[in-house]
């Protein structure tokens, strides 16, 4: 940790400074520097294997890094710290996985209310009420007592979003939330994400949904081979990508 | 013939049921039940701790536990019983009752077997469940307790039942170190009658069969109840579907 990224009352929600990460000899992330402002919606795009998942997973420290630092609301999340402290920080960063990862042994409402009860100590009755409200918000109030195995992919992913929101995180991370879905279910998940963005949630999303990027993102990060090659507002990125590899990526997407 | 069985049971039911008690130590079926219940009750949590140690990132937990599990699984239970019988009193310098020695041996032995099942159950869940729990702010122990183990243990039910059933059967080996259980009582009866070993030991076999069968029955109906509650396209794991896990883990 050569770079100090801790500072009180940072203007940015997330600040990534000089982050490098290796898997053995292979360098997945090469000196990443980037920031997400409060309330900003950032879309990360880039070719397969470029390190998007790795990058987003370092933000809540599901992956460790080799050097650099990542601050979340001014606190360095990769600094040495007690496990309980890290858990507390993590609980304030919502994460939505490509494969949903709902807890199949719990009902939908228990999926959403379990962590507030067990991690934050919210009284069960209050957590339950809150969970029902969140489920209503993602359009699944009628599925509260179902089990994840009884839901479609799109419904499961909406539950996963509600589950993350139940911890009241100021920031939400999404790692290809719609890639595992049948095409007809993509829209229902994207519309939940859109409404979140409209309410001012700070979001960092890896996605191949360029329509979503164009309409909702404030900025695009284009990443290739472990480097952020371009960061630009969507209108600039889609109309005149500057980096040749970004141009090629967009050309490939149109085909 | 049938008359023989009835006579044996009429004459010796109390001995078969509680041994010499209250003139001697509690024995017979009562002791077999107590020994089995205690062995299962302790082997279960012990197996979870052993599995967690074997999956630990710390080598000083992982290595010794791996060695213990391999050794335990690689020797016959009878060896282990005799070994504990002679070594535990040496180490502790106390006159340890054979019941206790049998209990400790069974817990270690069945714990080691069960720990392989638990470990496979945890590993087979994949990383995603742990990631999801950690991302929500659960610590390692919280994630295990609320997310990983409830699923892993549920998937393990068939293998767990077979381990528990073999625990009941294995209590009979306590005979060699004079644990006063049902087998011990039956052999006392046999020694008194001298002429009817077939009848005596058939009664013994029937009692063990009923014991093991009722345990299997209860466990199966518990599993069916959970499966029904979670019924859905992905999670209605009927015992038949969960069975392959058992075959896999028993080959480990
Ligand atoms: N645990 C690991 N060990 C070794 N290499 C890994 C590991 N995880 C990922 N990698 C490699 O790191 C690179 C980046 O992977 P990552 O999953 O971050 O890519 P991605 O941009 O998310 O790709 P995709 O669009 O396919 O999801 C890939 O080349 C991948 O093979
Ligand atoms: Mg990925």
TrEMBL record, chain B:
Signal peptide: none annotated. Its main location: membrane. GO terms for cellular component: ATP-binding cassette (ABC) transporter complex. Keywords: Cell membrane, Membrane, Transmembrane, Transmembrane helix, Transport. GO terms for biological process: amino acid transport. One of its GO terms (molecular function) is transmembrane transporter activity. The keyword Cell membrane applies. Residues 29-219 form the ABC transmembrane type-1 domain. It is found in: Cell inner membrane; Cell membrane. It holds the Pfam family BPD_transp_1. InterPro entries: AA_ABC_transptr_permease_3TM, ArtM/GltK/GlnP/TcyL/YhdX-like, MetI-like, MetI-like_sf. It comes from the Bacteria. The chain crosses the membrane at residues 33-55, 67-88, 100-122, 143-165, 198-220. It is a multi-pass membrane protein. The keyword Transmembrane helix applies. PANTHER family: AMINO ACID ABC TRANSPORTER PERMEASE, MEMBRANE COMPONENT OF AMINO ACID ABC TRANSPORTER. Belongs to the binding-protein-dependent transport system permease family. HisMQ subfamily. NCBIfam families: HEQRo_perm_3TM (TIGR01726). This is Polar amino acid transport system permease protein. It comes from Aliirhizobium cellulosilyticum.
